[in-house]
Amino acid sequence: MTQTLWLTGDPEADALLDADPFALLLGMLLDQQVAMETAFAGPRKIADRLGTLDPRAVADADPEQFAALCATPPAVHRYPGSMAGRVQAVARAVVDTYDGDVTRLWRDGDPDGREVLRRLTALPGFGDQKARIFLALLGKRRGVTPAGWREAAVAYGEEGSRRSIADVTDEASLLEVRATKKALKAAARSR
What is the largest CA-CA distance in the chain? Predict the structure, then answer.
């Protein structure tokens, strides 16, 4: 079951994320050291400024010009230069490995959840946690449910959890996820 995405609170940014799996992947990539809704609004800023979000166009853009595009206020990320490089690296990987079709990450060869997780962690900028969260986002919100996806996503795949962007469906759930993250960070600091 695919539900209309609500990740940013901006109807146009959410519509792009809903329609374009590459935009969703980039939003996940950008979800680091910024608010979740800021990260997931980044792909729309890139698309508006570049005129496209085609992975080939992103990968082939001049790196200096692309970094400047990402730094133009409002910046795509609080670290626009380094994140511009990561965005282009992910775009290049999608082009080189999946012929520009990001959905092949979870479609090619009918992979199970562990294989999708392995493919995600092979992408530049996608560590284990980010890959598990994105796998949960695919399963919970996009209807991409390969065998064993919940187990591969670990706690992020739990039904009814409020741990990550995979659990955001509206402003109230965004606040619940934010509260859970804050509590987990506080608990980690007190150890």
Answer: 48
